[in-house]
UniProtKB/TrEMBL annotation, chain A:
Gene from which the chain derives: znrd2
Record Pfam families: Auto_anti-p27 (PF06677)
InterPro entries registered for this protein in UniProt: SSSCA1, UPF0148_domain
Protein name from the UniProt record: Protein ZNRD2
Compositional bias annotation for Pro residues: 145-157
Signal peptide: none
Segments of this protein annotated with the region Disordered: 96-175
Biased composition (Low complexity): 109-125
TrEMBL record, chain B:
One Pfam family named in its UniProt record: Cpn60_TCP1
Provenance organism: Austrofundulus limnaeus (Annual killifish)
Record-given protein name: BBSome complex assembly protein BBS10
UniProt entry keywords in alphabetical sequence: ATP-binding, Chaperone, Nucleotide-binding
Domain of life: Eukaryota
Chain ranges passing through the membrane: none
Coiled-coil intervals: none
Length: 229, 688
């Protein structure tokens, strides 16, 4: 075979740390898939000779002749977790990145917002918040998580854009307005982005999720407007 | 059921190697199919990798396989058997829609009970079943080793330089080469390596070791078959009954051992006749299993058994009907008398004539003193009546296995022609009586003592039917394990690659092996029969150590294109077995590994002297390490070696499969295998 010629051009180098993490994650995912498939086989599912179109995993068929793909329907998708439309974390990190790149205005003191989540992140004084906080906030709607680094004032934790908005109880103070304006801008940016994505999207699921995002952005804007009045 | 239409697509990327670009055209598809079909007709069916014919919709389609599909299939099967693996593994309870339950810890039974339509999965299960049919054990270890081997091969092959479009085919080719190298190494050097690094740490068990707890061993450090069987039953049944059942098995073997005969001969006899030699009884505790003298025929008497005390009992075996069977329903009988068809009233003299001939047969039997008739078929009512009147016991519809065993043990020939009954057709039995086992009544016969063999039959009791089946299959596999342990191992490449072993050819192949080896090599049996080693991963640790040292010493010469060491891959694969055994206690894995490594380096005093029962054993007494080893149980080295070879051959053949051809057929029959070839049309073996 003419493969020896190829090998002379390339030298195998050990993978970098990032690549190792990716390889490790992939291996764990494959192990999970195998374990789930083994469980289903023992439950009486049939292993078919076909593969899933989306992810390439072997399909299983239950007793009602329905095909079932273990990785698509049970595990979180490998690539979807980086898609901002489908994942809160990815969306949040994208917004954050954009804000950092745009060199946002000096940090403002933000009063504590009562009740649940605000619809977007506050000023850029917050050093890169970690996804773990976002996850916690997105999952439980917890109010505030102070960031680990030491900024002078504890700032409200950033939260997911998809989290439902609860109307804040205390009347708005003057210090709140710039925060609200920034929040509005961020939501509008997200809305614009979602619209462009929706126009170009071909998949049904992605479109549905984008519409959901647009709805929640609109709701957030409404609440922000109420807040500022 | 038909596959979904989407599966008929041909993945476009896989054509890049042959077509040189994306997008396969119809012409190229049909070209490949033509080539495949032509080659199938030219090559011998037996020597090719197998692919299974299964349902497809629409036109014939070819699906190329990638390494990750192979890996995913085998890993899924591994996940299935993993939970039952090892002495601490669990049992799997299968229930059918009919309500019938099956309880199993045997890898073969679990895998066979799964619904698998994927051809690769079925190839793997087939390999496992064939291996298990020969050796009796090791099916879960097989899948475990196969999965970890394929993972290692995949990891090594993916280190190959990635050229964007051809990455998958490069990977597949690299994996194939690696597998071939592994197999070549295993067939040529592995046996020597085992005999150097593992066998000196083990010991030989000879046939005189059939001691049970009723006969205390001569020395406390006597390693017995009992320990081996006990550890086997522990992995197959449970820890509560393994001791009792292994004692029972030892007793069975002791009583069946033909004196002055080769060990493997009587084990083969036991293995072949096991269905006729055991009775399953449900509803009793396992501890009421026992041995019964003689043979149990699993039928009841058709005529009342009146005489019990007349000894010795004479018996005759009939294979045909005593009364001609022409007087059955739906037969039209034409009676001719001198060329003219006689009327209906002549049926009466005809039947009277047949009855008179029957009476004469019975009278002949009575003159020989026969009181037991064993028949393979159902006799007519006239025969039953006459036999009852003559005070003969009649047993009908005896199965073929049992009849052949009876004939073998009593040394008579069955009567095929009722008019010629000779003295050699009459058997002499010690007794014949009815026996009540569980809910059934059977016929119990005992033979006069001949050639020192005391035939006995096994009664296996268990609380439920599923458990009796489990115990029975465990016993059967135990006999096969012992048979494999005492067979001389064939180690030449010629033998392993060229002779496909079918289960029924087992004995003939083993008979050929020594002669074949003797011409090929001077030391034929590097792995002497009867070698055992403590269980619990000892074999794997020792061989791992040996392989690592071997790879270090040959590091200069064993360079491959990928810079991967074949020995190292094999060594790492082996460690997956003890890792899984100690998966619940990771600390014990490290403890065991360090203990064995330290004992290896302690050369001044070998922890296991290679000893034979006949040799003088310098009695050093039981060192703590020896006692530790004893607690783990024993396993046979030749079984392990054959397992490794089988795993490597299966991996090689899996990686050689290049494409799945989906054909449009009406029936999907699992026994009908079509062959598929890789694009190189290599010969290969799916079984050792």
């Amino acid at each position: 075979m003419a493969l020896n010629g190829d090998e002379e051009d390339f030298e195998w180098e050990p993978p970098s740390e990032a690549e190792m993490k990716v390889i490790q994650a992939r291996r764990e995912r494959q192990d999970k898939i195998s374990k789930l498939m083994g469980d289903y086989l023992l439950k009486g599912y049939k292993m078919l000779g076909e593969c899933c179109d989306v992810c390439g995993t072997i399909l299983l068929q239950d007793k009602q002749q329905k095909n079932y793909c273990v990785s698509c329907q049970e595990l979180d998708s490998d690539i979807d977790k980086d898609n901002p439309a489908l994942n809160a974390q990815a969306a949040l990190s994208q917004v954050r990145e954009r804000q950092l790149a745009a060199q946002s205005p000096p940090p403002t003191q933000a009063a504590q917002l009562n009740g649940g989540a605000s619809s977007s992140q506050s000023g850029g004084s917050v050093p890169q918040p970690r996804p773990e906080h976002c996850e916690g906030a997105a999952a439980g709607g917890r109010a505030l998580l102070p960031p680990p680094a030491v900024p002078p004032p504890p700032a409200p934790a950033p939260t997911a854009t998809l989290a439902p908005i609860r109307p804040p109880v205390p009347p708005p103070s003057s210090a709140l307005r710039p925060v609200l304006q920034e929040a509005e801008e961020a939501v509008l940016t997200k809305l614009r982005w979602a619209t462009t994505q929706l126009q170009s999207s071909a998949s049904l699921e992605v479109s549905t999720q984008l519409c959901g995002l647009i709805t929640s952005c609109a709701n957030s804007l409404r609440s922000l407007k109420e807040l500022s009045q | 059921m038909a596959g979904s239409p989407a599966a008929c697509r041909i993945p476009t990327t896989s054509w890049s190697r042959t077509a040189g670009g994306r997008g396969a055209t119809e012409k190229k598809k049909s070209l490949l199919i033509d080539r495949l079909m032509k080659s199938i007709s030219n090559v011998d069916i037996l020597e090719l990798a197998a692919v299974y014919e299964f349902h497809g919709e629409g036109m014939t389609s070819v699906e190329h396989l990638h390494l990750k599909h192979v890996l995913q299939t085998v890993c899924a099967l591994e996940a299935v058997v993993l939970r039952s693996f090892g002495p601490d593994g669990g049992q799997v309870l299968f229930t059918r829609s009919t309500g019938q339950a099956m309880l199993s810890r045997s890898g073969t039974q679990i895998l066979k009970a799964l619904h698998l339509e994927h051809p690769l999965a079925r190839v793997v299960v087939d390999c496992v079943c064939k291996h298990s049919a020969v050796t009796g054990d090791g099916s879960k270890t097989f899948v475990l080793l196969l999965a970890s081997l394929l993972r290692m091969i995949h990891a090594s092959a993916s280190k190959a330089p990635i050229v964007s479009e051809c990455s998958k085919s490069t990977e597949a080719a690299a994996a194939r080469r690696l597998a071939d190298k592994l197999l070549a190494f295993a067939t040529s050097e592995l046996a020597d390596l085992i005999s150097v690094s593992v066998v000196p740490r083990g010991f030989c068990v000879s046939a005189e070791d059939f001691t049970t707890k009723t006969q205390p061993p001569a020395r406390p450090s006597d390693f017995r078959i009992q320990t081996l069987l006990s550890s086997f039953f522990h992995t197959r049944l449970d820890s509560v009954h393994c001791g009792f059942l292994s004692d029972l098995a030892c007793e069975l073997l002791t009583r069946w051992k033909f004196q002055n005969d080769k060990l493997s001969f009587f084990l083969q006899f036991l293995s072949d006749n096991f269905p006729a030699l055991h009775t399953q009884v449900s509803g009793f505790p396992v501890s009421s299993s026992r041995l019964i003298e003689g043979q149990v025929i699993h039928r009841d008497f058709s005529t009342p058994c009146l005489q019990v005390h007349k000894q010795p009992v004479r018996a005759a075996v009939f294979t045909e009907h005593l009364q001609p069977t022409i007087l059955h329903q739906s037969y039209v009988l034409e009676l001719r008398c001198g060329g003219r068809v006689t009327g209906e009233e002549s049926i009466v003299p005809f039947s009277a004539r047949t009855e008179r001939s029957l009476e004469s047969v019975i009278a002949t039997l009575q003159s020989f003193g026969v009181s037991l008739l064993l028949c393979a078929v159902k006799q007519s009512t006239a025969v039953l009546a006459l036999a009852a009147r003559a005070e003969m016991c009649l047993v009908e519809c005896v199965s073929e296995d049992e009849l052949s065993l009876f004939v073998r043990l009593s040394g008579v020939t069955p009567i095929s022609d009722c008019w010629r009954i000779q003295p050699e057709n009459i058997a002499t039995l010690t007794f014949c009586r009815a026996i009540l086992l569980g809910a059934h009544r059977y016929v119990h016969v005992a033979f006069c003592d001949s050639s020192g063999v005391k035939p006995c039959s096994l009664v296996i009791c268990a609380p439920g039917e599923a458990q009796t089946d489990q115990c029975t299959s465990a016993f059967q596999d135990a006999v096969r394990v012992l048979l494999t342990m005492w067979e001389p191992v064939s180690t030449t490449e010629a033998t392993t690659l060229k002779n496909p072993v079918q289960p029924h050819e087992g004995t003939s192949l083993h008979a050929h092996c020594p002669t074949g080896n003797a011409a090929y090599r001077s030391d034929t049996c590097a792995l002497k029969p009867g070698c055992v080693i403590p269980a619990g991963g000892t074999f794997e640790f020792l061989l791992h150590h040996g392989l690592t040292q071997h790879s270090r010493s040959h590091s200069a010469s064993s360079c491959t294109n990928l810079g991967v060491n074949v020995c190292q891959i094999l060594a790492n694969t082996l460690l997956s077995v003890p890792r899984q055994i100690y998966s619940h206690h990771p600390k014990r894995f490290l403890q065991a590994q360090t203990r064995i490594t330290s004992l290896i380096s302690d050369r001044s005093r070998p922890f296991m002297a290679f000893k034979n029962v006949a040799n003088e054993d310098p009695d050093r007494g039981d060192t703590p390490s020896k006692r530790f080893m004893l607690d783990l149980g024993l396993e046979s080295i030749s079984c392990k070696y054959q397992l490794l070879l089988a795993v490597l051959q299966c991996a090689t053949s899996l990686l050689r499969v290049d494409a799945m051809v989906r054909t449009h057929t009406a029936l999907c029959s699992p026994s009908h295998k079509l062959t598929n070839i890789s694009e190189e049309s290599t010969d290969d073996e799916t079984e050792d």
